[in-house]
## 1
Amino acid sequence: MAEKTRTGGCLCGAVRIEASGPPTRVNYCHCRTCRKASGAPVVAWVTFPAAKVRFTPEPAWYRSSEKAERAFCARCGSVIVWRSFADPEHIDVTTVTFDQPDDPELKPVDHLWMDAKLSWFDVRDELPRYHEFRKGPRVK
Ligand SMILES: [Zn+2]
Ligand SMILES: [Zn+2]
């Protein structure tokens, strides 16, 4: 059976993306770097194996910290990708980049970097919350 392929793109349409197969992770990130890069108080990310994601053309890359780089559309500035240098086999795509983001498989399952969350941003769902990364301790 053929794998499901999701399509998406940046705001202006210059960069298109295709991701095949199911995502490996989905989450919200409240960290400062995601906020700065996106212009939003929180970012929803969906992770795929890097080999399952194809860009047309390749977006622009920017090293956003010692640990990771981000890709964006050089024309409209849409934030498209986060990738950790420690785990180049996976790629995080901003969920809203996809043409059909209102997809149950793309629904975030937890909140990362709650320690950085803006106080006026109210999280009311029952999803697990982590101080930082998922491998670290959870917020009570
Ligand atoms: Zn664009
Ligand atoms: Zn983040």
Note: Residues 5-116 form a domain with the Metal Binding Protein, Guanine Nucleotide Exchange Factor; Chain A fold (CATH 2.170.150.70).
## 2
Amino acid sequence: MRRYYPGKNFRCALSIEELRRVASRSVPGFAFEYVEGGAEDEQALSRNREALDAIRIIPNTLVDTSNRNQSIVLFDQQLRSPLVIAPTGLNGMLRYHGDAELARASAAAGIPFTLSTVSNMRLEDVAESAGGRLWMQLYVMKDRDVARDIITRAEHAGYEALVFTTDANVFGYREWDQRNYRSPGKLTLRNIVDTMTHPRWMFNVIRHGVPWFDNIVDFMPPEAKSASGGVAFFPKLFAPDLTWDDVAWLRDLWPRKLLIKGVLSVADARRAVESGCDGIILSNHGGRQLDACVAPIEVLPDIAEAVGDRLTILVDSGFRRGADVVKAVALGADAVMIGRATLYGLAAGGEAGVSHALNILISEIDRTLGQLGCKTLSDVTPGMLVKSR
Ligand SMILES: Cc1cc2nc3c(=O)[nH]c(=O)nc-3n(C[C@H](O)[C@H](O)[C@H](O)COP(=O)(O)O)c2cc1C
């Protein structure tokens, strides 16, 4: 198919793919490659898309779908759409105060936003400037005091849910990042030239200085406080000794909704139920961790059958179209987390760009429902799906 190149104006982008193209021109290569890249050969990254594309839908015809509604109830609250913005670190490298821009756009769209542990704004500042429904993502690092600090602060600031990410115990090997951030705190000559050719980005981001990991800055060693140093330093901070005992520990500390992000087997999903978790997020970190990993959508049906009536199931990794979201709901997901799709919007147009990305997805979900002969997401059933070879 012929592809349209929307130039640099995000408002001309009609799809997430077009928004991705605008984003790729809006920020320097090292920032875009940080967002875009997957681990090693990027097989998990491609598999996420292939697995979603392989599912086809058989529509029902001649059904009155004039009044369509994609809202859902998640943790006893109404959401306008079955979407949650996924936690992503270093949003400040794409846009100054990118964390707050993402949070404000989600609040306007009526969906929750998840702030990463390695954000470039303090969680209190995001809560104050954005409002809306906020979830806090937690990386439990070698120094368990980081987790204690975040949990206490997030509870105090009114965050509704804690998302414990378990698939980064050993940090993924993203070769783009290795090349771009080889020496902590320094950029290569290629990257410096690249930066100079993005004056708008420089004005928006670098005018305020290199973004820092403000949320956990007190715990970072001096060479890792800034974005460029931190990317190289992360592998040393993450805890390879995480176990289910950490879940029990978090369950005691955190009184609100607790979700585990990175569950991909029925056995682990059952342990999440036994550990008193409220939800799980089936995720391979958008193909950024284990390169040989299965695509979350492939394991969703078995996990939904095993535990779907006992906890809330979210899924992410590879979702770029409204039809992808409808497929996941049909297979038993309660909602879908969106990572890169909204980051493309952020890079291309800040808060308005994120809203543009969400509007694209929401209108695609609506259109898909109508074309399927469904008025609501509960009308979509697994029987409507077939797997192509
Ligand atoms: C740039 C980037 C940064 C990320 N940072 C985090 C993070 O700090 N914590 C986390 O749990 N997941 C992180 N993730 C994974 C996302 O939460 C999510 O699982 C993934 O992006 C979903 O795949 P998708 O990008 O194809 O939608 C990150 C992903 C990207 C692309």
Note: The domain at 10-387 is CATH 3.20.20.70 (TIM Barrel).
## 3
Amino acid sequence: MSIAREGTPEGELSALLTAVSGLRDQVADSTLPLTLPGADAAARTRVELLNQLDDYVLPRLRSLDAPLLAVVGGSTGAGKSTLVNSIVGSVVTRPGVLRPTTRSPVLVHHPNDARWFVGDRVLPGLGRVTGGDAFAADGDTSAVRLVSAATLPAGLALLDAPDIDSVVSSNRDLAAQLLSAADLWLFVTTAARYADAVPWALLRQASERGTSIAVVLDRVPPEAVAEIRDHLASMLKEQGLSLAPIFTVREVPLETGGLVGAEEIGPLKQWLTALAQDARARGMVVRHTLSGALDSIDSRIEQLAEATAEQTSATRALSKVADTAYASAAAGVQKGMNDGTLLRGEVLARWQEFVGTGEFFKQVESTVSRLRDRMVAMVKGQPAPAAELGEALHSGVAALITAEAASAASTTVRSWRGMPGGPLLLAQYPHLVSSSPDFDQQVQHLVREWQGDVLELVRSEGQDRRTTAKVAAYGVNGVGVVLMLVAFAHTGGLMGAEVGIAGGTAVLGQKLLEAIFGDQAVRSLAAKARASLHDRVYELFGAEAGRYQAAVESVEVARDQGRRLTAAALGVKAAR
Ligand SMILES: Nc1nc2c(ncn2[C@@H]2O[C@H](COP(=O)(O)OP(=O)(O)OP(=O)(O)O)[C@@H](O)[C@H]2O)c(=O)[nH]1
Ligand SMILES: [Mg+2]
């Protein structure tokens, strides 16, 4: 890999920097709004990757020759702060008996190296505090305290981090973030703690990400050194960390000031000093960690791209459920219009009033034409029953639409409850459990508009003078009501006695309209009346479904998020 080579040409480096910046922006822009299985892990990966790019990879690529940053991390109370103080030779960071002691990170550097750390080159999300003493109020986890110490070799900075296994979660998160900014992780553990799970999970991750690691086995009882060291070495080997050097610090009484004696700290201090003074060795550590970080990008981007695809398929499925429910509701209304459903109950009763008595129907079959004339007289002469029949039709149609919409809403909600992301959306948009609040008014309005359409049909169909005269003679409203009735009169859905009655309804209505418009026109008028209602219902249901679509859209990931993440990762690969 090219970044691992020394002396990478400037041009290649700047291309890589551009590619990594591009990737960083894509990761920053990406979202995973739905809580799907696995999305939590992907969201963590996203934040970790973003932090690592901001805190380590980008600053390192921008200044390959900046001092090596060794982050001292490990279990709570392992002696991290004491070690940092002992390496520096004075108390620069507060050690303590109470856990956790170190809450805000302390970065110690040589005075000549200050310029690399005062700005936000590394860890840009954290502020900087300079001055103050090690025992000043400690607890600001949003800033790094900078300490300049001439006893530390130039070229190397030490960062005392909070404990990685803290009971305080902000401490833990900060420790993990600091570790991801390290060129070198000085992993501090003790005889008592070295087998703990948390540090090993982090060590495994560091190993996977190619971070350079050195291990300090601290506070070991002198008699147990050999045994513990061997065991630790074999554990490191199992994790693919056999190359990590181990430094053993025996537990002996601390010297004045709470520092570890020169004899104990000696080997570690010498190793760090040699590293600081050897630009080549330092460069190797840096490039090892940098390459590892770049290597680990692919699998992490893959995870984000997969999580993105899951988000997309979840939102698609949610959206489809709503669409299907409202399409089937629209079909339900259409079916209700065609199968005679609308001619039952109230409508039928009003129709009977409209055309006369029960007597009237007994004679329907035999004397249609005479009866037609009677009916025509009634249509003409009895505006009140026409209005009542119109009302009944209005209510029937409205009830049909309302019921179908309510069932679409409840079908959608029922399905969403069991679908990934559905419960979240329903919690976020509780009004979705039923139709729009003003749905009833909308339906009333719709039916009135449709009745207006039908009257308009009647008026405009009567273009020639004879027809116009006939329509006028019967009354536009009465004829309109009969047309509505005929539009709904198909016998398919009726049972027993109703068949005869509704059949009669159809026949009578049909005869009346044929007498006015001619039989060709009647069929097309009925079809137009049905189509106009259907179109209006379709539009209304579209708007209802739109409420669910809008909710889904609010949690949709950008259309090409997955593709852009993958492309950005490929860009980094190509630039290397
Ligand atoms: N005798 C002895 N005591 C030590 C040694 N190292 C640390 N201690 C003591 O152990 C306690 C914890 O040490 P710290 O250096 O604060 O440990 P730490 O890892 O920084 O702790 P946190 O920041 O809370 O995670 C302190 O009381 C130290 O004085 C050692 O090598 N020998
Ligand atoms: Mg500490």
Note: Residues 80-81, 101-102, 160 surround magnesium ion (ligand 2) (CB under 6 Å).
